[in-house]
Known about the structure:
The complex is a heterodimer.
Chain A: H1 7-20, H2 23-42, E1 47-49, E2 52-54, E3 57-59, E4 62-64, H3 66-85, H4 92-110, H5 114-133, H6 138-169, H7 182-195, H8 202-207, H9 215-234, H10 239-258, H11 262-283, H12 286-317, H13 333-346, H14 353-367, H15 371-397, H16 411-429, H17 432-435, H18 449-468, E5 479-480, H19 485-528, H20 540-559
Antiparallel strand pairs in A: 1-4, 2-3
Chain B: H1 3-12, H2 14-34, H3 50-74, E1 75-76
Amino acid sequence: MIDWVHPSLLLFGGAVVVALLRGRAQQAWLLVLPVLVIWTVFSLPSGEHGAREFLGIALTPVRVDSLSMVFASVFAIITLVGSIYALHLKDTAQHVAAYVYAGSALGVVFAGDLVTLYVFWELMVFSSVWLIWCRRNPVSMAAGFRYLLVHALGGVVLLGGVVLYFLQTGSVAFDQIQGDGWAFYLILIGFMVNAAVPPLHAWLADAYPEATVTGAIFLSALTTKTAVYTLIRGFPGTELLVWLGVIMALWGVVYAVLANDIRRLLAYHIISQVGYMVAGVGMGTIMALNGSASHAFTHILYKALLFMGAGAVIHMTGKAKLTELGGLYRWMPITLLLYMVGAFSISAFPLFSGFVSKTMVVEAAALDARAWVWLLLSLASAGTFLHTGLKLPWFTFFGTDSGLRPKEAPLNMLVAMGIAAFLCIFIGVYPHWLYAMMPEAVEYNAYTSGHVLWELQLLLFTGVGFFLLLKHVGGEWKISLDTDWVYRKLLPIIAGAVQRAFSQFWQGTLATLSRQVTLLVSGVSRHHGPQGMLARTWPTGSMVLWVAVLLAASLLIYYL
Amino acid sequence: MDLGKLLEALVQRGKLLRRIMYVVLAGLVIADIVIPSAYDRFPWESIGGFGAFYGFISCVLIIVVSKVLGYAFLYRSEDYYDD
């Protein structure tokens, strides 16, 4: 009697079914499968399951506790939302990739040991890259390969850490990582690559804007948040992460000012928002860890909503740059409205979801008396509203009319956005629903007059600054260098130089060698060649003569 | 339901919306000064209207610093990576 099903296996099996079906039947399955997944996730019994020994290593493939459930439940919800958003799509490869990817992400959050985690971790990379490649143009092919390269390296580092950790402790159980040797840091770096912590973050802003319109929803939700989960589980209270988180929050904000591609702007704000979560992990107090987990939950919903809004604009207009967009409010008003719900949520306006989660991380900094962290995270909050809530919608939906006259987005896209928008407002109005899921009891009230007044002033006066500087904040026909410059420009230059130097060396060696060979050949040919002493042909007559001499000699010897 | 028309009507009353916004902004600052501050973990938390000041300064700082970084170091033409 099976009383539970691993949701990852359900998704993998479901992906095979997607591949076999076509047309209406496939569409129906795209709706049924995620609902089954949600049901499976919520009916998992808590505790550890399926423990077995493999090659002398104790594995725990499934561990269900409150922390894994926070992430698993929002992953399951977003799989449904993403499926509805992609319902019109007749691209089986993308649907399959999305489900394998979602299944792998669930596998990571349920993994009770580092080996199982690693297997699902790699599976995430190799399934998610197809959501980039499926856009089927040279730019996304190249971006996909870079994405693969960075994650392959990150995976190797993680694997190295896991092996060392096993050698040191004799266990691969995934709990707080002990010690501070190589194993600790290698595993940390492996997780940090996926969490997009600078300087290991550039893959995100490089690849996500090149992904398919529908694939970006899954990408924005899963990879960085599984990494946040692993950091909460493995590295709570790692002081280094506080400052890396603050740097992340600000890094994303700076690059969002410079971004022109709407999904690149949003991608940089993933980095910025994950910065709050990473900082929360670093502080490691109960309030901070609850804040990180609840911010991951709300972030997945509002960020998917924002990506869906931007994706709808790209889907309907074929344009992705602020400099090409403008004046769409009259033509895509529902998209605008739903997008703005996401924008108010990420900006942490009262009554929207970000307010009840982001302020918890900031509050944790206050309780910890970390003044700089508090000030800088508040500054990043202003930046979030500045870009996602003001710059992007202003220059896309208002601003100068671009002359584009698109239709409203298809119904399935609007429904998916509507579900996400509903949840954003629901959590904002009724945060207890979210708080009740948290790993530790939440003793935090977001709706104090102090918080509400502070946040409203911060955000609305950011708006004043925006409209004063409106002329300087629009998109520009430019791209900005980020750390991916190292492997997109610097390494190719170095590789080119090395290749030239080596080829010169090789040519030189070849020339020397060929001189030597020529000398050898000419020497040999002097003696053995057609004119050579040793190759001279002797006439048959002389042979007969010598035979006669030999016979005469033998006759002579015989008689003697 | 025509949301588009509603939005258009609002856009046409932009001036009125802006005035309403000014009143809201002023009201917020006044409220923050009048209502005794709930927190005093940091010295600035008890200064009325500090949030407004900090939000505005943050916004200007972010734009100016980022643009300076952009023009000085980071901006490249769009075909920079195409070889």
